[in-house]
């Protein structure tokens, strides 16, 4: 059976034909996006963005002087640290036009938080992407549960709801951070065919709900393959993955029916993969995901270094679209014990393989190398005295793991979420996750830090 082409393709094809941002979902048949036309449109958008940023954003004024016509790879990078306490230097519209400000902590440093600003137009662009990305697995009229709610009128739950209502869907937005048993009870009541949520949150609900949706979309954090398989096995559903970060306007890339990497919304975001020295890497090589916000004029980001490790998959997907696909593993590795690279996502992968593990938080403390300690807070099902030992054994087999591992274990059903697991890098883990939700200070339950 042939795999249907990603609906992002028709959305972008229509925008390329019309020369307009494109509003509304349409199932009309268009010629698929061709790479040459898309690349030309990206180049035009980039030139407009560079001139706009140079003229209107104080941060870029000096940096882009004389570079208005330079190729992308010669433009300067923007780092998360550039954003710390400097949002007004990126803003190119008046404060009155800002609809939403998102504050992200810069962990591991004393730098002020990062703030990102979004206008109505920016939020509508994200809503459009959400709508078209969801069409892959959400037939019109479906019941959808979004486990990423919040009280904000422009939060992720609200944007998804607005988008999906245009498909005639009934959308139920659940509070973020409620206990898994409460989420499971709501799922049993609402009986959605599609569930959208953070990977660990969805996995915890899957353990407890009687109702099994047809599809789960994992967003807001990385989804290790073992966690994905666990949800698929528990619910017998198909699991899709979305990748995004607040800096990309939450939405960035989502899987099509082939489920072989996430197609990027390339008319809005120009992705690159670069090595640690900033050299652009060829297709297939792992490096840092770097994004340029092609159509976001209010708060432009040029060659923004995400801190996430990813790679491009071959250009033509088996769905037939040439839209670029990224595979993202997690935060970039760092130098760990013995000089080996420490990959947190590998630790997550092996921990989720242990069936008794219901949730966990990982963090590093102390000095570097042999003085460092890995703190593991485990939530396990039942009184299995060996599970902590099994977890430590699995972690010890990974390169770069510190010699000291401290495990705290909680038994029984997930009582509440362990704390943020990432204690390094510049990711926002302390005050807000990448899904844009502000994490309240303890003792309120909060989700794992991560991406959207
Ligand atoms: Zn595809």
The stretches of 5 or more residues where confidence is low (pLDDT under 50) are 21-25, 414-452
Report the biggest beta sheet as strand number plus sense, adding barrel if it closes. Answer: 11 strands, mixed
Backbone CA Rg: 21 Å
Encode the helix/strand succession as letters. Answer: HHHHEEHEHEHEHEHEEEEEEEEEHEEHE
Classify the secondary structure makeup into a structural class.
Answer: alpha/beta
In total, the number of domains comes to 2
CATH superfamily label of the largest domain: ANL, N-terminal domain
Work out the number of β strands: 18
Order of adjacent strands in the largest pleated sheet: 4-3-5-6-7-8-9-13-12-11-10
Structural features:
452 residues; 22% strand; three-stranded mixed β-sheet; disordered C terminus; binds zinc ion; alpha/beta; eleven-stranded mixed β-sheet; 11 helices; 2 domains; GMP Synthetase, Chain A, domain 3; globular
């Amino acid at each position: 059976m042939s795999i249907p082409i990603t609906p992002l393709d028709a959305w972008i094809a229509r925008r390329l034909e019309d020369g307009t941002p494109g509003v509304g979902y349409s199932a009309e048949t268009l010629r698929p996006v061709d790479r040459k036309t898309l690349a030309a449109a990206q180049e035009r958008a980039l030139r407009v963005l560079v001139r706009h940023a140079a003229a209107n954003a104080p941060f870029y004024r000096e940096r882009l002087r004389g570079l208005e016509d330079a190729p992308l790879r010669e433009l300067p990078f923007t780092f998360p640290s550039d954003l710390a306490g400097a949002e007004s230097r990126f803003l190119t519209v008046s404060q009155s036009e800002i609809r939403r400000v998102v504050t992200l902590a810069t962990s591991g440093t004393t730098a002020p938080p990062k703030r990102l600003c979004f206008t109505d137009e920016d939020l509508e662009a994200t809503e459009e992407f959400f709508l078209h990305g969801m069409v892959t697995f959400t037939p019109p009229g479906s019941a959808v549960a979004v486990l990423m709610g919040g009280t904000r009128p422009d939060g992720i739950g609200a944007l998804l709801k607005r988008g999906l209502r245009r498909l005639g869907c009934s959308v139920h937005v659940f509070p973020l951070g409620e206990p898994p048993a409460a989420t499971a009870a709501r799922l049993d009541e609402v009986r959605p065919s599609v569930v959208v949520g953070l990977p660990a949150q969805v996995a915890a609900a899957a353990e407890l709900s009687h109702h099994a949706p047809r599809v789960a979309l994992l967003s807001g954090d990385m989804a290790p393959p073992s966690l994905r398989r666990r949800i698929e096995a528990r619910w017998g559903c198909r699991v899709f993955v979305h990748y995004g970060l607040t800096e990309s306007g939450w939405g960035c890339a989502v899987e099509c029916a082939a489920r072989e990497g996430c197609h990027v919304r390339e008319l809005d975001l120009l992705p690159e993969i670069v090595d640690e020295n900033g050299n652009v890497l060829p297709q297939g090589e792992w490096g840092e995901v770097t994004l340029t916000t092609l159509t976001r004029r209010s708060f432009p980001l040029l060659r923004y270094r995400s801190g996430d490790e990813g790679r491009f998959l071959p250009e033509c997907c088996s769905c037939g679209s040439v839209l670029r696909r990224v595979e993202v593993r997690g935060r970039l590795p760092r130098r760990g014990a013995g000089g080996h690279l420490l990959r947190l996502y590998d630790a997550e992968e092996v921990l989720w393989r242990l069936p008794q593990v219901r949730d966990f938080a990982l963090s590093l403390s102390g000095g570097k190398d042999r003085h460092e300690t890995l703190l593991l807070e485990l939530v396990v099902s039942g009184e299995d005295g060996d599970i902590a030992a099994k977890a430590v054994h699995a972690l010890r087999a990974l390169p770069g793991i510190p010699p000291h591992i401290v495990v705290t274990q909680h038994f029984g059903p997930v009582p509440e979420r362990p704390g943020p697991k990432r204690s390094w890098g510049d990711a926002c883990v302390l005050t807000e996750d990448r899904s844009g939700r502000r994490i309240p200070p303890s003792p309120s339950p909060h989700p794992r830090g991560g991406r959207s």
